[in-house]
Amino acid sequence: QVQLVESGGGLVQAGGSLRLSCAVSGRTFSNYVMGWFRRAPGKEREFVASITWSGGKTFYADSVKGRFTISKNTAKNTVDLQMNSLKPEDTAVYYCGLKLLPSADFGSWGQGTQVTVSS
Question: Do residues 6 and 96 make contact, with C-beta atoms less than 8 angstroms apart?
Fold first, then answer.
């Protein structure tokens, strides 16, 4: 079993920044992808960003490109999401997910952390 615990959410004004962190513990794997997703009120969960743990390759949703940066800390076993130039539409619960390759689906999730951006 793997456990994912998010932290770093909060309330920020538009244009501000927040940094989310996801701590990974439990069973270790060699080939997987870590991702951040979000769910805004009344909407479906959507992809935000992902990073391959071994190669560090990153992917971003168009809506966050140039504003958000995903990174990994191998020593601490964490994956972070630096969010800059935040907009009210970024308000959501942010979830950390893990996908074991070659699976197409993220199978493990954290409990989520609330990010609220005021206008």
Answer: yes
Average pLDDT, integer, range 27-40: 89
Q: What type of residue sits at position 33?
A: V
What was the pLDDT predicted at 29?
76
Query: Which tokens in the block code for residue 62?
Result: 């168009």
CA dist 24 → 2, 32, 61, 79, 82 (Å): 7, 12, 23, 8, 17
Structure tokens at 76: 């601490």
Q: DSSP string covering 16-79, please? A: --EEEEEEEEES--SSEEEEEEEE-TTS--EEEEEEETTT--EEE-TTTTTTEEEEEETTTTEE
